[in-house]
Amino acid sequence: MEYVTLRGGVQMPLLGFGVYQVTPDACARCVTDALRSGYRAIDTAQAYENEEGVGQALAAGGWPREDVFITTKVWVSHAGEKQAAASIDASLRKLRTDYIDLLLIHQPYGDYYGTWRAMIAAQQAGKVRAIGVSNFLRDRYQDLVEFSGVVPAVNQVETHVFCQQRALQAQMARYGTVTESWGPLAEGKNDIFRNELLRRIGAAHGKTAAQVALRSLVQRGIACIPKTTHAERMRENIAIFDFELSPAEMEQIAALDTGAPLICRHDDPAFIRYIADLCE
Length: 280
Hints:
Oligomer: single chain
Largest sheet: 8 strands, parallel
CATH topology: TIM Barrel
Mean pLDDT: 96
Number of strands: 10
Shape: globular
CATH class: Alpha Beta
Helix content: 40-55%
Structural class: alpha/beta
CATH architecture: Alpha-Beta Barrel
Strand order of the largest sheet: 3-4-5-6-7-8-9-10
Radius of gyration: 18 Å
Order of helices and strands: EEEHEHEHEHEHEHEHHEHHH
CATH superfamily: NADP-dependent oxidoreductase domain
């Protein structure tokens, strides 16, 4: 495993296991399989409604707490200082832990400034080791940096070979914010697993197209949280630290970038309306 050091000196694995869309019933099994496969970072969220499953797996497996890096996120319906503070305590109970390694604002909507203040207070109280954001595009990220007084340690955004987020990554690097990818395999879109270039590069290293796609992100210092419910695929996804892509291969992969997201647009009014409807 390779690690990245976050603001404040917190070390985070560059590859973790995401549980988005994993049902609450299946979550404990999947997290257990992931930990047995060598993962030491688990990414969940209040909105996924499976924090309890993560907590169950950690408790049942007897994993030393300091060996597992836990990320969760404050949902929009809990936005605001008071509501966010209460939701953080609820997440701690569900996760069966005294602290969260990384806490993120899930979406850049609602009173995210109030949420940010609650997260800063939680960090100061020792409930959280590092705080960051998710889905903050360049304007919202800069807004928080300039006017909140606290720079996010991480920004988790849609990032994959077809949407490489190079401008955002460069902007955040100036402030020491790490880019973390959700959807690092593009949720299978654009036929990524059969992409000719990725397969050709993979063949040269004895790896799959998916492994090449993940490795290309990790080599750029981007953390990834691929999700799967299959133990065999978990083991495949984590087996990316025994090879390195050449500068020429990285340049070829860079040419796959379309500069636009494939999964959702966080600056689209229709998407924001969709999130608002979820919170009603």
